[in-house]
Specification:
This protein has about 425 residues and is mostly helical. The protein is about 85% helix and about 0% strand.
Length: about 425
């Protein structure tokens, strides 16, 4: 019971922060979409999608590895190893950001020719690529704060950064800076978030007597380098597949086959659904570090009870929101984005159906990770991504963003089916088969 209360408390800290943060972000997207119009907003969406997908290709998704190993070391009172893991996590994240930055810069012309088709796109790609040098380390900082149960700090930081972004994006657009101004504000917001997060991490590491982590000797964990590398490699591939599938493959396919306006309609439909997905993501972020601890010390029945408890709480929130979206898509699109985006209403209805297949199994990914089954997650995501790409190539050329919406629904159905198959295999009633 105490565990469930703590899980719910941590989840609602994240959810509260994300609600405020999501509200600020949603308002910012609405303002940008209205101010730029369908054509220019579609151009910006394609630029961001390309830069982000390159980022995900080279992002090692260290935060999941950091959560598992820093949490384990601290539970075992191995502070020197925890220091080394903190340093290693930041080094990998920063290195991946630098690598992605240079690849984006070098491939901007090719990307414009294939997906974007705009004379000004290369300059916009160069501008937004600067975010790659900043955002990667922010994820590791959040992972460390979650290990220390500092969910309130994450909530306040996320809310403040998105409020900052909302205010200054509005100012930039009012002053007539258009897409370039918006992208520069995004980069400055990332810098503000970086400063706040690194400061908070340093404070809490010092309180745990994990001082001067930057001078730690990473050789102190060399006996686990192979294990950490295997886990990191699998979570990295998994993160790339998930983020590409969830956020960017559909947009790039539309850019290639249908153009920027189709990408704008699809992005607007996805942005409304993102409200629900962000809610489930906070439940994910809350339960993952707890599952790592529980699998070492708690009976399986207690773990099952916690999963059922959080699933019920999640569905109580997301089901009514989903029903509202399915019933009133035109009203929502007109209210938030304007009449020119109402054309995306059918796509929004289709995309909203993914909630039926994704929300009840939100716990499957963190459970597989906590069990050490990062490779299994990759099997699920490779298979679902292959199906998604095939569906995009079959549907987008003829049905544009409506086809992309159906492909996205198919992608989530495959994830659900495979997740249930593998969870049933590893998560037994009487025992858990661990690596």
């Amino acid at each position: 019971m105490e565990t469930n209360k703590r899980l719910l408390k941590n989840t609602f800290w994240l959810l509260g922060g994300k609600t405020a943060s999501g509200l600020f972000n949603a308002l910012q997207i609405i303002i940008v979409a209205r101010a730029l119009g369908v054509k220019d907003y579609g151009l910006m969406v394609l630029v961001i999608a390309y830069v982000d997908i390159i980022n995900k290709l080279f992002d090692f998704r260290v935060w999941e590895t950091a959560t598992k190993y820093i949490g384990t070391y601290l539970s075992n009172s191995e502070n020197n190893k925890a220091r080394a893991m903190v340093k290693l996590s930041y080094l990998i994240d920063i290195s991946s950001g630098i690598l992605a930055f240079f690849i984006v810069i070098g491939s901007a012309k090719i990307a414009n020719k294939l997906f974007i088709h705009s004379s000004g796109a290369e300059t916009l790609i160069y501008i937004y690529s600067l975010s790659l040098l900043i955002d990667t380390s922010n994820r590791t900082s959040d992972a460390i704060l979650r290990v220390f149960d500092k969910f309130s700090v994450i909530a306040y930081t996320s809310s403040f950064v998105n409020f900052f972004k909302l205010v200054f994006v509005s100012i930039a657009l009012y002053l007539g800076f258009e897409i370039k101004g918006v992208l520069f504000v995004y980069i400055i917001s990332s810098v503000v978030g970086l400063i706040i997060r690194v400061t908070a991490v340093s404070i809490y590491l010092n309180k745990m007597k994990i001082r001067r982590w930057w001078s730690a000797n990473i050789r102190s964990i060399r006996d686990q380098w192979g294990e950490i590398g295997w886990f990191l490699g699998n979570t990295s591939l998994n993160g790339t597949l998930v983020m590409a599938g969830d956020n960017h493959l559909g947009i790039l396919a539309l850019g290639y086959f249908a153009g920027g306006e189709a990408a704008a309609f699809y992005k607007v439909a996805k942005s409304i659904l993102k409200i629900i997905m962000e809610i489930s993501n906070q439940f994910y972020l809350s339960i993952y570090p707890e599952l790592v601890k529980m699998l070492a010390n708690e009976p399986i029945s207690k773990i099952k009870d916690s999963i059922k408890y959080l699933t019920k709480k999640l569905l109580l929130i997301t089901v009514p929101v989903t029903i509202t979206i399915i019933l009133f898509p035109q009203i929502l699109l007109n209210l938030f984005y304007g009449k020119e985006y109402i054309e995306a209403s059918l796509a929004l209805r289709i995309i909203a159906l993914t909630v039926i297949f994704s929300q009840p199994i939100f716990w499957a990914n963190p459970l597989l990770l906590a069990l050490g089954r990062a490779g299994t997650k990759n099997i699920i995501n490779i298979a679902s991504t292959i199906v998604y790409v095939i569906l995009l190539f079959l549907l987008v050329p003829d049905y544009s963003f409506i086809g992309a919406a159906w492909a996205y629904l198919g992608y989530h159905i495959v994830i659900m089916l495979l997740s249930l198959i593998f969870v049933k295999k590893y998560f037994k009633i009487d025992h858990i088969k661990k690596v």
